[in-house]
Amino acid sequence: MTTVDTHFTIRARERAEIKVRGSRFIASVAPVPAKEEAQEFLESIRKEYFDATHNCYAWRLGPSGLLFRTADDGEPSGSAGKPILFSIQKFGVSDVVLVVTRYFGGTKLGVGGLARAYAQAADEVLALCEKVAVTQTTAVRVFCIYEDIAAIKRLMSQMTTRYDEEYRDAVEFVAYIPQSRVNEFIAQVTAHTNGRAGTVVL
């Protein structure tokens, strides 16, 4: 289920290849959390296919996919990077980088033909990918006495993506709460323990 705190990425790297009028188009995609990792993946593809005619790419990052970059790598402007990005957007994922490597086959495809070929290669590799949800969370530390453990754990099961617990003189939890529900969670902790439990946003 998609919420304001959730977006989708892909589980693992994938690769697909198509041929269009003699040219090979090899699409490689990877999940990346930041542009540094996107750049590292791009460099690894450039080294792997050092003799290729072009290594065109797009990456899209962030919960809303608002951080992105495209490159045509010597192909006519707009014929490669943008179609790749459009495929990523169409698939509904972010935090991914997709590189399409081309080995020229001797027949020019024209701008329209190139755009279709790059989009098709991108579509092919994304079709192999498993989408996974990523939830943006905030860590909240909760301190409570032993008598309030049951109430706190009920709240944890309803409102957290996960939590850690540590038992000492008092009980300490670190709860990971979807960002949009942090204030609600803190209010519920206070209400369910009559103000005995304490919270700190980490």
Can you put this structure into words, describing what you see?
- The protein has about 200 residues and is an alpha+beta fold.
- About 30% of the residues lie in helices and about 35% in strands.
- It folds into two domains: about 5-135, Impact, N-terminal domain (Ribosomal Protein S5, domain 2, 2-Layer Sandwich); about 135-200, Alpha-Beta Plaits (2-Layer Sandwich), CATH 3.30.70.
- It has five helices and eleven strands.
- The strands form three sheets. A five-stranded antiparallel β-sheet has the order 2-3-6-4-5, with helices on both faces. It has a four-stranded antiparallel β-sheet with strand order 9-10-8-11, with helices on one face.
- The longest helix has 18 residues, at about 110-125.
- The model has no long low-confidence stretch (mean pLDDT about 95).
